[in-house]
Amino acid sequence: MALDRIRRVGSIKEMENVTDDYITMGYQILSRGEKSIRIRQHGGWGSAGGHIITALLSLWWTFGVGNLLYALYTRYSGEKVLIKLVEKEEG
Asked: How far apart are CA 72 and CA 66, in angstroms?
C-alpha cells in the first residue's frame, strides 16, 4: 500500500489524539499496530458532475461499468497516512 504521508508522534496519547482528529475529518483506520496506525481518507462516491461526464463519454460502450469504476476509484483513492510512534531515547 503506497502512503501519501507519514505523521510522527512522540507518545501513545498523542498518537490516539491525532488518530481521533483524523477520524473526525472522515478518515478510517485500515490497520493498527503497537507503534503505528494506517488510515485512509474516505473519497466519497464521486461527484454528480463526474458521473454525468463519465456517463456521457462511456455509457454507450460500457453499459454503466464506467460509472461504477469511477465511483470505486474515487471511494478508495483517498489520501493514506501512517501515524508512527517515535519514542525519544532517554539519556
From this structure: 10
| Contact yes or no for 84/8 (Cβ under 8 A) | yes
Name 84's Cβ contacts closer than 8 Å, sequence gap at least 6: 6, 7, 8, 9, 35, 36
C-alpha cell at 59: 455509457
Please return the burial class of 63, using the count of CB atoms within 10 Å of its CB with bins 0-12, 13-18 and 19+: exposed
pLDDT tens-digit readout, 66-85: 888 888 888 888 889 999 99
Measured distance CA(8)–CA(86) in Å, rounded: 6
